[in-house]
From TrEMBL:
Keyword annotations: Dioxygenase, Oxidoreductase
This protein's name: Ring-cleaving dioxygenase
Molecular function per GO: dioxygenase activity
Keyword Oxidoreductase part of the UniProt annotation: yes
Gene3D superfamilies according to UniProt: 2,3-Dihydroxybiphenyl 1,2-Dioxygenase, domain 1 (3.10.180.10)
Presence of keyword Oxidoreductase: yes
Pfam families: Glyoxalase
Domain VOC: 7-132, 154-273
């Protein structure tokens, strides 16, 4: 059995107003709304999934939108930036688009030989658009005003900010099989050699920087791809053998999950590729209906009444 981790499965963040989050990621950013469901622990709160046509692993960004949540704070012990891959020559398009939407951004710059554009989403979440060295051949989701020449391909990398990168780097290398590829000042780029996309993790060492606070506009956790249950159990046992506590498998309907907190304090998830987002909706209708976990179906009328309308 090939047990090599190929890269990221999904990233989960927290937002404020659900309608504002929905409009930004589906309209301004042009991602597909793959699934509209609710939080397993709070059925009166949405759980949104954005991605490509089918919600492929490595493209899925999920949000828990809490209307009145306080604003989070970027700092150590947390994931702090999401990097998307975009086509060469597309950054001028994105600059004009972000300008038109009154989005706060920085002028394009370069790191590790790649040009990137950084901006903040409506809740202050830091997002980067990176033109990768190697062409990203993933099929994008296109909208009426964002063609394939400019559309997001999926994740390029995620950044973790840490007080001391060494314990996390050791886990990535000795357990997950990542390799240190490049270093620039206090930023260290690790790559999974088994994957072609969504396979970079940047570790930024920020000794003495304030600890971050996970709330609105921040990343809750990142998830790595597990092709099946056997692979997930293999890594769960390796994590436990290092003295870290990993949960038992939890059924998230669209994937099965194991969670643990890595030594630097960031919540990691091992998520299976299966069964995927077409388990309860056909591809053509993904994201068009409110899909409730079975245990909440008896409360559907009450839940629908309390959730914010998106139309």
């Amino acid at each position: 059995m090939d047990q090599a981790i190929t890269g990221l499965h999904h990233i989960t963040a927290i937002s404020g107003n659900a309608k504002k989050n929905f409009d930004f990621y589906t309209k301004t950013m042009g991602l597909r709304f793959v699934k509209k469901t609710v939080n397993f622990d709070d059925p009166h709160t949405y759980h949104f999934y954005y991605g490509d046509k089918t919600g492929s692993p490595g493209t899925i960004l999920t949000f828990f939108p809490w209307q009145d949540i306080m604003t989070g704070r970027r700092g150590t012990h947390m994931a702090t930036e999401i990097g998307y891959s975009v086509p060469e020559g597309s950054l001028d398009f994105w600059l004009k688009r972000l300008d038109a939407a009154n989005v706060i951004y920085n002028k394009p710059s370069a790191k590790f030989g790649e040009i990137y554009l950084t901006f903040l989403d409506p809740d202050g979440l830091k997002v980067e658009l990176t033109v990768p060295e190697k062409t990203d051949d993933r099929e994008p989701w296109e909208t009426a005003d964002i063609s394939a020449d400019n559309a997001l391909r999926g994740f390029h990398h995620v950044t973790l900010t840490l007080e001391d990168i060494q314990p996390t780097a050791d886990l990535l290398v000795s357990v997950f099989g990542y390799q240190l590829e490049k270093n620039l000042a206090n930023r260290y780029r690790f790559k999974s050699p088994a994957g072609d996309t969504a396979n970079y993790i940047d570790l930024v060492e920020a000794k003495g920087e304030q600890r971050g606070h996970v709330a609105g506009g921040s990343i809750h956790h990142i998830a790595f791809r597990m092709k099946d249950d056997a692979m997930q159990e293999y890594y769960r046992e390796k994590i436990e053998a290092r003295g870290l506590h990993a949960t038992q498998q939890l059924d998230r309907k669209y994937f099965r999950s194991v969670y643990f907190r890595e030594p630097g304090g960031v919540l990691f998830e091992l998520a299976t590729d299966t069964p995927g987002f077409t388990v309860d909706e056909p591809v053509e209708q993904l994201g068009t209906h409110l899909m409730l976990p079975q245990q909440f179906e008896p409360q559907r009328a009450e839940i629908e009444q309390k959730l914010i309308k998106l139309d």
